[in-house]
Amino acid sequence: MNGETTLLEARGIRKTYGPVVALASANLAVGSGEVHALLGANGAGKSTLVKLLTGVTKPDEGEITFAGREIRVGSPAEAARLGLAPVFQDPALVPDLTVGQNMRLTRSSVGAVRARLREMELDVDFSERAGDVPLPMLRMVDLARALARDPRLLVLDEITAALPSDLAERVFAVMREWRDQGRSVLFITHRLAEVIATCDRATILRDGGDVATIVPREGGETAIVEHMLGPEAARAEEEAVAREETAPQRVEGDVIVDVASLRVGRVADVSFSLHGGEILGIAALEGQGQDELFAVLSGQQRADGGEIRVVGRALRARTPYDAIRQGLVLVPADRLLALLPQRPISENIAAPRYNTPTRWGPINMREERRRIGSAIDALQIDTRARRQVRRLSGGNQQKVTIARWLASGFRALLCYDPTRGIDVGTKRQVYGLLRRLADDGAAILFFSSELAEFPLVCDRVVTLFGGRITGELAGETADEAALLRAMHGLVEDAAA
Amino acid sequence: MNAVATTQGRVAFDWRRAARRHGWTVGVFVLLLVLVLYWRSSTNLPWGTFDVQSLAIDALPLAFVAMGQAIVIISGGIDLSVGSMMSLVNVLAAKYMVTSLGDATVGSSATAGSFGRAVGVSLLLLAFGFLAGAMTGFIIHVSKIADIIVTLAMLFVWAGAALAVLEVPGGGTALRYQNLVTLDTVFTAWLPKALVILLVVYALLWLTIRRRRPGLALYAIGSNRSAAYLSGINVPQARVFAYAMSGTFAALGGLALTAASGIGDPHSGDIYTLNSVAAVVLGGVSLLGGVGGLLGVMAAAFVLTLVKTILIIKGVDQNYAQVIQGSLIVLVVMIGGLAIRQKGKSGG
User: Fold this and answer.
1) Cα–Cα distances in angstroms (integers) from residue B255 to residues A4, B180, B248, in the given order
2) ipTM, 2 dp
3) What are the backbone angles phi and psi of residue A250, rounded to the nearest 5°?
4) Does A265 contact B217 at a Cβ distance shorter than 8 Å?
5) Least trusted range by pLDDT, from A139-148, A205-214, B12-21
6) B348 CA to chain A: closest CA distance, Å?
7) Which chain A residue is nearest to residue B7, measuring alpha carbons?
């Protein structure tokens, strides 16, 4: 770190949305030639601060200086002119225009963007409609576009959340390159391992204010979590996790889902069985068939070949409705795919139950309230904004998607990247919840784009590569290195 | 395959993608061709240049107003005020292109003004259309009221204004101004001037902006408003611009009505509000915004006009003719929608 000179400084930033105080008084200083992390639990004010810095919204109070001058950023376009290039959590590419037209829209040089993509060894067809480009690749295009402007400060908001590990690695390379050129990166992420590996300093926000600026390599994950959650909360969390870890009372249950020689899309030949009471991890790089696997199991897509049995009966799912009736339910990564954003929590939780086919007649409201109430309690959902699910934080929304299935009952829970974009505290609650469900006999299939989650969550992990299962590891041994090797199909098949 | 990484540089022209992207427009032109052939075969009379010219003249007002409507719908809005804007421009033109209005009750007829006067009035009215549309867009932006409500209100405002200008059909315009769209042809009698004017306007007002930032901004705000904003687009400006274009095209439609009929009628534009939406949908523009182009919409305007003509030739009852027209729109859009869904499924 050579942060003698400060490139960006924000002092006493305050921002309120009606009665909600998003930022009370936040300070942030990013030096020249440093990679600076902005951390905090969901709702701590990270997103708000980024929006203020990049001109998406305006602060109520406080001042921002950039390269020694006080600035007022009125719009994203103005931020770009100042030399502040953001890459947002949601891709800022217009889906109905081609990639090339998107570049023209932002007055970006197509040649420079192409060059940046080539440097990252990516090839994107610029005449493709942006909406047809897969999301992870779109994030990379977004990044290349930001880089092409040669900004002095690159702001990366949760860019790695939707990226498979090989693409994330390229983002880190760019961040290192930027630092080596004496420029700066502001990096927002939930993945603490990434912060420790790549960032020089980290500012941690809690409840709308900055609580500490630390060197992440020195304190490690524990120190960061402590700052993020506050000292007591962190200790309680640690204990909770420790308790669960010391009680690995695994009972092999019956086979709930049996997949035999499944063939669909990129899935060439996949067989595995998922037992009651276990959490089975599926680890894979981007596009190895996991999307299709989950789509078939949850009834969104039909298989081209092979067989799926649910408790011995063949799965005949033409729609998600059929899969749900047979007890296969999905928790998707994109929470808004599963939720009714304008409706209250209770309605969202009750929605799948409206379909229960055996019971006609009026809904038993007392029974329903009881079920909803117990699901909310079990997941510790923050119900302050219960009238509209879209106002909940990401973590709480994800809890609601799980609560729906708790209230309606299921045999196997299909979790597709269930912790994407939610904070450490909530993630741990989700891990703990999945473990409790498994202990109660549920079967859980678990995919994550974050490798560090597998050993924490899973009893067993299978790796998918090129549409085939390439390896199986016990949960405890599924560390990042072992997973990565198996995910690239590099496992030394001594057993077979 | 069609997804991400084409490993070697620029690939050859991708036919499948071109078909996916422009299939609808081509389909509308094919439909138009089929209808023209049917039209020709359904009458024993010799088929001459006159038929082509009258088709172009009939379709011109609808084509204009539908293009404006398409621009607004592409940008994610809808403009229900276009019909009465046409009426208003029509009566203003007919009133001020004459030197004396005359009085139908006394039996004196209007005295047409000079051609120069007519052109001057036309330019003023085009500017009026642009500003009136911009004002509508501005109200939508400032009030944050839904597009459909504000433009519905403007529908009544302009309709009332049109009646205030000219309560009963009347007025007129220079004969040479009428000849602009009616009699004259270019190069050959098979190329009606009305069609040439349409294509010139299309080239001037749309081709010049479509692939540049103002045009891309229209698609951007219709496709995903927050992504457009994050791309540095001035969203309010682009919205106001869309409505200003719609107002301009409605004014062009009103002037076309004036030239074609030679008089002003405060109800002349009434049918065009919903017909313009029909032409836009038939022309392959998504009502959700962000998708489609104006070429298909122009062809759709001709299709709708031709269907009406054919039904008249066939002697179909006016009431049933409307039933048939409506059914045709639903049918075509439904078939198109199914075709797209099928492609989406197999394309995976």
Assistant:
1) 68, 11, 11
2) 0.73
3) -90, 125
4) no
5) B12-21
6) 8
7) A123
